[in-house]
Amino acid sequence: MRQTLRAPRFLALLMAAGAVTLGACGFQLRGTTAIPFKTLYIGVADTSPIAVSLRRSIRDNGPTRIVTDATQAEAKLEIQHESVTSDIQTINSLGLATEYNLYYHIQFRVVSNKGRIYIPPVQLTLTRLILSNNNAVLAENNQINNLVADMQADAVQQILRRIEAIKPEQ
Question: If 43 and its partner were Cys, which of 62, 78, 88, 115 is the partner (CB 3.0–4.6 Å)?
Fold first, then answer.
């Protein structure tokens, strides 16, 4: 009977020690972003997946209002370029690709409504490795779509973190 009582106590002690260790090393969950602008214009087509993700993240994380007229915004986030490319890493004896890298490129900048450049043009490139299976083409296409969506989500977080660091003029 005593054996069963010691196990939960030991487990609780172990969990408490783990929590203290994580706190001591500086680990913390990623919180919400604090965009330093009351209004923001996103300069990319409304139907773009990156625009949808940016709008959703900004709306969910604070009081910043997204406007559809650039003249009404305190700042403009301009997506200047967005593309997905790939290159072959390895081929098999039949000359078919077995591994390749998938790249997601996005270039953006942030400017104030007065023309001040907060963030000059920045190019982000995210990479994922794909193992090709020539017998499962539909599954591979689905994997590619999922990886592109994942890279876009990563890009949104990186963009928002950079915007969060801006010190706007008072």
Answer: 78
pLDDT tens digits for 13-52? Answer: 667 766 666 666 655 555 555 889 999 999 998 888 999 9
Q: Report the DSSP pairing between strands 97-112 and 65-67.
A: unpaired
CATH superfamily of 33-164: Lipoprotein like domain (3.30.160.150)
Rounded to the nearest angstrom, the gap between the alpha carbon of residue 148 and the centroid of all alpha carbons in its chain is 11
The predicted model scores a pTM of 0.75
- Give one DSSP letter per residue of 37-73, joined into a string: -SEEEEES-TT-HHHHHHHHHHHHTSSPEEES-GGG-
Q: What share of the chain is helix, strand, coil (3-state, %, to 5)?
A: 40, 35, 30
Q: Distance between CA 80 and CA 124 in Å, rounded?
A: 12
Q: What is the DSSP letter of 36?
A: S
User: What residues form DSSP beta bridges with 137?
Assistant: none
CB neighbours of residue 62 within 10 Å:
15
Query: What are the Cα distances from residue 104, in Å, to 4, 86, 109, 123, 138?
Result: 53, 9, 17, 10, 21
Of the chain, the end-to-end C-alpha distance in Å amounts to 67
Domain ranges, ordered by start, for the chain: 33-164
